[in-house]
Amino acid sequence: MPQTATPKLTVLDELAWRGLLHQQTEGLAPHLAAGARAVYCGYDPTAPSLHIGNLIPVMLLVHLAKAGHRVVALVGGGTALIGDPSGRSSERPLLDVAAIDAQAAKIHAQLERVFAAAGAGGVTLANNADWLRSTALIEFLRDTGKHFSINYMLAKDSVQSRLEGGISYTEFSYMLLQAFDFLELNRRLGVTIQVGGSDQWGNLTAGVELLRRSASVEGHAFTAPLITTSSGKKFGKTEEGAVWLDGGMTSPYKFFQFWVNTEDADAERYLRMFTLRSRDDITAIGAAHAAAPHERGAQRALARDVTTLVHGAEAARVAEEASRIVFDKKAEAAAITDAVFETLAAELPSARFDGAELPVLDLLEQALGQSRSAGRKLLQQGAVTVNGVKLGADALTVPASAAVRGRWFLVRKGGRDVAIAELRGATRA
Fold first, then answer.
1. 218-252 b/e (C-beta count within 10 Å ≥ 16 → b)
2. Three-state SS for 95?
3. Contact 252/311 with Cβ under 8 angstroms?
4. Which regions of the chain are under pLDDT 50?
5. How far is 277 from 290, CA to CA, in rounded Å?
6. CB contact at 8 A, 426 and 407
């Protein structure tokens, strides 16, 4: 019997396998299959950086670009002056134009770097300030507002969730502005598809309606799910707050550590969502992780890939090496580069001293919060090592000659506490 050909997987199949597909308008699949389409996603510049939750729609655009579609990343320099009510229980504080413009420029730069790192060439960057800030109110109400009834707008989840506590007309009008963006991008760039998170579904479908009613254009939308961890926690939140893509707000080391600390039950799922690894590769990593979960191989592959995507290969390498040293008690201090020591000094308890020797009790006090009497007791117990050498009870100083390149000391107290000491006044080897 003749063999039946295996059906070719579509980009929607790929997105569904990766867990990136949640809702979609009817007819989306044939619309995508009919040829290259222009697709856009909007990003809100009400903060000076994107956070890791924004990587989900970024990955949507990356996969669409790699499938041959034209993608547009839109920064909301106009809509940010209003504020999106989606997913919020109260009004956003309004920012001034200068702050929004500065933040929009930073977010454009972040998007450009990530798309380039992902190999998604040809992404168009746009800013809705280019048309919204010059749009006349009367014209907007006549040409756009007339297509939406109050009943239609009140039925949207982003409005319904705010009715009891109150919503201003300013934020109530947000969905009309986002719908107008869809229409404007269709006119300028031929965009017929909008993507976003599932909390944006109401705004996205309003844009589809405006394209149909105002321009007789077939438009479509689809969303990715909002992510939670397997334990039910909100994804992307730590005790310190959001995990940002800006290295000055969340360092590459902390960024790497966030992914390394992923729960076992989520590691393979996040590899599908946040990396470009193949199905076979992810399956193999998942199998190896299941056989030896204590090695955290899936988490390290995830952390390496996402940190490289956002911060570059060198920053990812330094962050990974710094992470390894913290947990590897046998790590050779002499093999640690200055870049890794500098990262560790910025992230771990540390102390700096002038002179030609390291004062051990001062180090334990300044970096690890030990009183001098407690420090002496730790030395008597043999609980302190410096650059891999266990200190004796009378080792109150360590000479610069024992420092790495005459400068660095990797200090461990017991099995868990790690600190970095630096000599600034010694002659360095």
1. ebbbbbbeebebeeeeebbeeeeebbbbbbebbbb
2. coil
3. yes
4. 89, 427-429
5. 18
6. yes
Cα–chain-centroid distance for residue 351? 31
Give residue 274's region: left, alpha or beta (phi > 0; psi -120 to 50): alpha
3-state secondary structure of 116: helix
Residue 429 has a pLDDT of: 44
pLDDT for res 425? 67
Polymer length of the chain: 429
Q: Are 194 and 41 in contact (CB under 8 A)?
A: yes
CB 406 within 8 A of CB 427: yes
* Predicted local confidence at residue 337, as pLDDT: 94
* Alpha helix stretches (DSSP H) within 275-382: 279-291, 297-311, 313-327, 338-347, 360-368, 372-380
Token pair for residue 342? 């500098």
Question: What letter represents residue 332's amino acid?
Answer: E
- Residue 236 has what pLDDT? 76
- Integer Cα distance of 79 and 239 in angstroms: 30
Domains and CATH numbers, the chain: 11-224 (3.40.50.620), 237-327 (1.10.240.10), 343-423 (3.10.290.10)
Which structure tokens are listed for 10?
A: 């579509």
Angle at 245 between CA 47 and CA 367, to 5 degrees: 105
Can you give the pLDDT at residue 366?
Answer: 94
Helix, strand, coil content of the chain in percent (nearest 5): 50, 15, 35
Write out the DSSP string of 48-74: SS-BGGGHHHHHHHHHHHHTT-EEEEE
Return phi, psi of residue 396, to 5°: -85, -15
Residue (of 16, 14, 13, 10) closest to 33 by Cα position: 10
Collapsing DSSP to helix, strand or coil, 228 comes out as strand
Question: What's residue 125's pLDDT?
Answer: 95
Which residue, among 170, 87, 187, has the nearest Cα to 128 in the 3D structure?
187
Q: What is the pTM of this model?
A: 0.88
- Looking up tokens 């397997």 gives 230
